[in-house]
Amino acid sequence: MLKPRPTATRELVNLDGVWKFAVEGTVGETPWTGPLDTPLEAAVPASYNDLFTDSAIRDHVGWVWYQRQVRVPRGWEGDRAILRVDAATHRGRVYVDGALVAEHIGGYTPFEADITDHIRPGQEFRLTIGVNNELTNTTIPPGRITVSQDGRRTQTYLHDFYNYAGLARSVWLYSVPAVHIADITVVTGLDGTTGTVDYEVTTSMTAPVRVRVLDPSGDEVAVSDGASGTLRIEDVTPWRPGAAHLYDLVAEVMDAGDVVDTYAQPFGVRTVEVRGAQFLINGEPFYFTGFGKHEDTPVRGKGHDDAYLVHDFQLMEWAGANSFRTSHYPYAEEVLDFADRHGIVVIDETAAVGLNLAVEGGLTGAPVRPTFSPDTINDDTRAAHAQAIRELIARDKNHPSVVMWCIANEPSSNEEGAREYFEPLLELTRKLDPTRPVCYAAVMFATSDNDRIADLFDVLCINRYYGWYIATGDLATAERYLEGDLRGWAAKFGKPIIMSEYGADTLQGLHSVWDQPWTEEYQAAYLAAYHRTFDRIEEVVGEHIWNFADFQTSNGIHRVDGNRKGVFTRDRRPKAAARALRARWRGLDGRKPSSGA
């Protein structure tokens, strides 16, 4: 799916701003059939939960409604008009003057509708978008809805971050010619100093296609005719971590020598490979340093914000991070565009978090249910999971920053039924993109002895919290446990290992001379113990701390105003551990520290 861009043949209108807003039950049963009768307004993009002071809105389960008037540019006569919603968490319905034009399930990937037949250039239309935040056992991520005796509906879920909902990303209206470019796929390789570019251009109707490659200065470095083929860039400058270099693949639909549609797809020439226990980018071993992150800021919730985007990348650069994981859902595409331009490496993850009912039992004390069964995570769940993978790869396949797909976080990979659930999903991922490695992030309960799916994947991503949830406050024991655990995975599978989560909750300003959990000193000492262990194990090729910044979670006595494992506070102030990381990471330049470093 192509990201909307203005070109010589396309125009783009951003529909962000303040929209009318209403909660289901406060307006009529068909609110899309007329103007919303509501005093409320909500910002787009933003999650709606923290915008209002009414807890009934924050805790609402079900549909909410957004509405605004949109004027179509009068010069669009003869073009197709496309409406795009970058994300509606977790289900969206779009109405144009009362007509349903699009419906989508999945809260973190975009969807579109051709509304040409419903609008007229130069005139206004009423745009209504319904958003539903409900999660069930057949959604990704999963959840469960209960109804109390007084009729209140409550959403429970198994992911440890707040279930923010609404229109958290932009809404667009854009034009395309009747015959237009519908999709572009770019796959790159390196042949000595020459870059190879396999491309495929899909058009709305059969038409001649011309393709040109431009370097950053706008000079043409390769050209070809045809909707698919291979281009060669002599003396290519590869895209490298920390040294981004982007080309544009300019696709043009031709008619009697005239260009009727044009679209420029940025790309970088680079290769990714797993060889033995090494992760290679452009044939060179790469060591991941960075974070698990979240799209989470005060007031906005999961609403995308360009100011936080820039500042977060500045803080990662300051700390010496070269990578991050999009835990636990696809991030806004603007984030990946920024990573492309600045040479930051990304592990791109689906929203498949919470596929683990053992965690539910541990948190609630309820009897543990089997994760994989007809009544829990089942074939319908897997179908939704497969669609999430399709949409993730369709959106992000051309980003050079994306070097690996992560198809689940902390699934119950040690339970019966895990292999039957995941093997078809892994096959689908490799069919859709055979060029990138695939991983999942393993939960504490899954060990090298009992995990049922690790052999299927290319890289072992391990989440561990020795010294926090296990051996709390005892870092000597934690370090011993960690080393034994990692050596077990290394000996059995011989694959690259990334420590994809490790961390300790920390209150900024809390200090102690002892190893006291929650203090800034303990967080720094905890991370140092893990780093000593990584440096002793050859198969470890990366370290992603949990988390970049504190973030909001659901209500629960095990959390105090959210998860505090960030090395930065929620408003991005550094804790002591941030400076310790800076001392370790800066200067590594993607190389693994030597033993004892």
From TrEMBL:
Residues 179-270 form the Glycoside hydrolase family 2 immunoglobulin-like beta-sandwich domain. Residues 272-587 form the Glycoside hydrolase family 2 catalytic domain. Its EC number is 3.2.1.31. GO terms for molecular function: beta-glucuronidase activity. Residues 15-177 form the Glycosyl hydrolases family 2 sugar binding domain. Keywords: Glycosidase, Hydrolase. InterPro entries: Beta-gal/glucu_dom_sf (IPR036156), Galactose-bd-like_sf (IPR008979), GH (IPR017853), Glyco_hydro_2 (IPR006101), Glyco_hydro_2_cat (IPR006103), Glyco_hydro_2_CS (IPR023230), Glyco_hydro_2_N (IPR006104), Ig-like_fold (IPR013783). Pfam families: Glyco_hydro_2, Glyco_hydro_2_C, Glyco_hydro_2_N. This is Beta-glucuronidase.
